[in-house]
Records
---
Amino acid sequence: MEVPFNFCGLDTQYSNYDSSKIVILPVPFERTTSWMKGTSNGPDAMIDASRNMELYDIASDSEVYKYGIFTGEAIQAESELTLVEILKKEVKRLHSDGKFVVTLGGEHTVTIGPVSAFSEIYDDLSVVIFDAHSDMRDDYDDNKYSHACVSKRICDIGINPIQIGIRSMDISEKKNICSSNVFFAKDIVNTNDSWIKGMLEKLNKNVYVSIDLDAFDPSVVPSVGTPEPGGLGWYETIKILKAIVSVRNIISFDVVELCPNELKYSDFAAAKLIYTLLSMIFKSNGR
Ligand SMILES: [Mn+2]
């Protein structure tokens, strides 16, 4: 029998909308990528890889798919602004239906939609961004909604994001970063974990997490538009996420900037990251 094309390849018992607690929202949006193209193929590649995963999570001793995972239709838009508006509305609708939303990019611009939605739902929202790049330009190629400006747009919403894994930026971004919120890769990778406690103290109760896959070292996830050396390891990243889950309420997250190629292990790492984080979140608060 052919495995259904949805996240985890689930049969209808665990993938129908009504009884699913989790919704996967594919957003194959790509208009502003600057170097290698292909992030529009990211959501399908992650979904495809997820159909080959084991669905028992060892660390949490759980099978999170039993909460039900519905995979939505891909969200399409003609422009960055319409994308943000469409996504914002859709995320609010899913949230009011009691769903936990996981957004799959596409380029990093997609993050602005769910963050806008949740900033109107939670007045104490914190945002944590894993990324190699600070994305704090005011604009890029005269475009305020470029993927290279996503952190700056989140600041404009009124939230200073916590940025983890940064190792590439332009000097013009220096004036825009909030240096106490930035955790550079050089200070994280192969060092002790003492920084994590300070980072957690900066977070309010409700946290949105955005994971640009280029935060990982290219040895873990090579298939990204702009691979930067010196990134986070797999267990290093899981440890940081686990620390956040243990003391705060992750209300939604996204995984963006996968640029699939013949190296399938990036697609699989992205799918496994999503499943691992869902396992942690649902284990911790027994939703
Ligand atoms: Mn990036």
Note: The two ends are 32 Å apart (CA to CA).
---
Amino acid sequence: MLSFLSKQEKGWVGIDIGSSSIKMVALSRRGKGLRLDSYAIVPLPSSAVIDSSIQDTAQVAEAVEKGLKICGGGLTTCVAAVPSSAVITKTIQLNSAFTDFELEEQVKLEADRFIPYPLNEIALDFEVLGPVEGSPELNDILLVACRRDDVEMREDALNSSGLKCEVVDVDRFASERVVSLLEKGDEREDRLVGLVDIGASTLTLNVFKDGNIVYDREQAFGGNDLSNLIHQQSGLEAGEVEHLLRNDELSDELKQNVVLPFRSTVSQQVSRSLQFFYSSGPHNELSKLYILGGVAAIEGLAAQMQAEVGVEVEVANPFAGMDLASKINAGRLSQDAPTLVKACGLALRSFEG
Ligand SMILES: Nc1ncnc2c1ncn2[C@@H]1O[C@H](COP(=O)(O)OP(=O)(O)OP(=O)(O)O)[C@@H](O)[C@H]1O
Ligand SMILES: [Mg+2]
């Protein structure tokens, strides 16, 4: 076979730093297809990341090092993200004849006006979106700003694990990439698609219209509530509870008495979150709702939620159309896929221009 035809383009490893664990996904591209090369989920001590903010870079770096070992080496560069809630975005319009230098200066001036922190404390970036409709002399420019600390803590943790952090992205851009991947082949206009991430401590609802985010809401709710209930009922230690949950090894009694009622609570929380969305403006009904995050792995959750919210609900699996490296166990991956969605969205950043 001619080797250049199957040339492999190795991506950066996508790293999702959650409050309960680190998720890592390494993809490569062959022609138009994608391959999952490796992935890892490494638990974090509860003091390492609180409210999406890194408290202890050494603990995070240690977890990333463990993840790199699980992934099997050869990974040198990565992409991580700051949470959308830590970021301020604004679209402004600037003269399309500006040079890059002029553009940067204008962006700083504009940012100084709308960001409530001194410029030297923020990390600022921008993207030229294209000409303004009806005014080709102007370009729409997307400004993205967050506290410098939020970016630097991530870079520090990742650099001290030996990786080079190529890009610090924003969560919601990772979600946008995942939605286009999940919705490939179903790109009807005006399609409203929801993405619900239910992690250990946070539930996030994002809604996308034609692939662009139109709604973003976070609330404090997640799998920690379930773990605490199991701990109270059984006396099992937190680490043990996580292990049993992730491997579907809880006793039938705990499943019946704790997981099932929690599953109903999750459906109700998501239903309430959707009500907030519908009441935020004149929106059509969602065409589909994808669930992701560790809690999305609860058996039967999608079906129960679908009955509760009246919209088609599916557990997100971004790897469905991908080749898998031979060392990856497909059964294990289908359990892990919802937890890996955000890390996958970050890894996809590798293949953008
Ligand atoms: N099979 C399962 N059934 C129920 N809960 C599960 C299962 N597997 C994992 N969980 C729960 O999912 C949570 C972890 O999910 P995830 O890794 O998405 O969270 P995180 O990204 O660390 O947290 P956050 O995004 O809130 O900061 C834990 O609370 C864990 O108990
Ligand atoms: Mg998470």
Note: The mean pLDDT is 92.
